[in-house]
Structures are given as C-alpha cells and as structure tokens.
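Progress note, sequence design subtask.
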C-alpha cells in the first residue's frame, strides 16, 4: 500500500468515526431507553455482572472507555471504597454531558470522573489502571484491534481488560427470534420513539456512510465477531488467559483478558 492509499484509508476511518459520533449525539436523550430495547431490559444486570466478575478490589482504579452516559461506571463505583476511582471516557461530548446529572444524583462525584477522549488515542500513561473495561461500545470503535490494544496499554501488568458486548445467541430457536426482533422490529420501535436519524452530509460522508441509529446499532451487533472471534482478537492484541462468560442465552458475553508481565508483552 502506498502513502496515498494509506492516507485515503485513514480519512475514510476518520469520516466513519465522525458519523458515528454525530449519530450518538443525535440519540443521546433516548440512549438509555435504546439500550433497554436492544437488551430486552437486561442491560443493567449485565453491567453489574461484568463489574462483579472483573475481580476488582475496593481501591481499584478502573477506566471505562466508550462510557456513554456512565451506566457501567456506576456499576463499578458501587464496588469501590473512597480510594477507588472510575474514569469514564467517551469521544461524544453530548453523552458525557447527559450522563453527568446521573452521577450527581447518586452522589458519586468522588468515585467517577468523566473525560472526553477517543478510545483509539487515550490520554493516559502506560500502566495507569488495574482494569480497563467497556460495555456495548467497542464495536463502534472504527479499528477494533487498535482499540483493544489501547485498553491493554493503559492497564498495569497482570491487570485486566473487560469487554461486555452483544454476541450471537447460542440457542437456535431463540437466535432466530432474537435476530428477527433485532433487524426488523427494533428499528421501527426506535424510530417511533424519537423519529431521529442522522442525515447524510455529502461533504463529510459518502452515501454508504449514512447512519440511521436504529438500523446501524442492530446491524453493528450482527457484524461484530462472535465470542470465539473476539477471544481470538484479544489474544492477538497481547492479552492472555481470556475467559468468556455468557449471559441470557448468549445474547451477550463478558470477555476478560489479562495483560501479561512487561517482559512478555507483544506490541
């Protein structure tokens, strides 16, 4: 690939990332409701489970990337004492702004701090956290492997990367029913709720980059690697002993990988 081709690819990824950011900004007021619809209202229990199996201690420092409105950060904060901290990062300013009142309402300002940041370029030194985690956000990062590597970079050796994400249901009948709901029914419900879709801006995006939130989100789930595919990518990104926990007939999985000691880390 020559330099010109490489620049073109980078520009396309940047435009896609900007389109996704704009899309999330457009649905921020119904984002929590959309999560409930996507998850059949299991999302809160899944986040609590992910926090519990992360193996954190009360004084752990946690980074929650793609934090959205902060629900996963809230789940982690409930397991921490006064010395523990959750930093929630997201590149969509509107999401953080909308999530801040939730933090204040629960009096968690001392345990949760928000920062506007791109998961592909986290503004933290190496080895800054014991755990880096993400819920339902890593599939929206335009370069999945680069995102996982950044999450690995900022955790200390023997620290953990925890990914809670939608997967492919394992029960055949339930899988067919759920995919029908995902691809046909959910987009209609979503549009009825907010009637919000992001119009294409020709200057920024080619026609294939038009993002309708309620169509994009279900299809982004279907296009995401299955549980073994994600495990393989985490291992490729330098994580070891990757464990998989399935929830609710395999609708979601929690993947937990460990960062090896410094002497054995692969770039």
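Output:
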């Amino acid at each position: 690939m020559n330099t010109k081709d490489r620049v073109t690819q980078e520009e396309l990824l940047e435009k896609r990332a900007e389109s996704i950011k704009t899309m999330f900004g457009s649905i921020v007021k119904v984002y929590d409701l959309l999560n409930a619809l996507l998850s059949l209202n299991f999302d809160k229990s899944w986040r609590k489970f992910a926090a519990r199996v992360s193996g954190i201690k009360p004084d752990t420092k946690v980074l929650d990337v793609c934090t959205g409105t902060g629900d996963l950060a809230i789940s982690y904060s409930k397991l921490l004492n006064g010395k523990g901290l959750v930093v929630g990062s997201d590149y969509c300013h509107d999401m953080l702004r909308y999530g801040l009142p939730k933090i204040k309402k629960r009096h968690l300002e001392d345990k949760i701090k928000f920062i506007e940041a791109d998961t592909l370029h986290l503004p933290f030194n190496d080895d800054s956290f014991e755990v880096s985690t993400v819920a339902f956000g890593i599939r929206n990062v335009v370069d999945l492997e680069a995102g996982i590597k950044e999450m690995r970079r900022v955790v200390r050796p023997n620290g953990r990367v925890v990914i809670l994400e939608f997967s492919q249901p394992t029960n055949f009948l339930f899988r067919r029913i759920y995919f029908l709901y995902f691809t046909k029914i959910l987009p209609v419900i979503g549009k009825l709720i907010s009637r919000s879709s992001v119009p294409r801006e020709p200057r920024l995006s080619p026609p294939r980059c038009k993002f309708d939130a309620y169509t994009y989100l279900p299809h982004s789930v279907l296009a995401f690697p299955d549980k073994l595919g994600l495990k393989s990518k985490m291992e490729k990104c330098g994580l070891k002993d990757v464990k998989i926990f399935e929830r609710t007939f395999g609708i979601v999985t929690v993947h937990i990988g460990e960062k090896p000691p410094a002497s054995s880390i692969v770039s």
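Residues 11-170+218-261 form a domain with the Rossmann fold fold (CATH 3.40.50.150). Work on this subtask will continue into the next period as scheduled.
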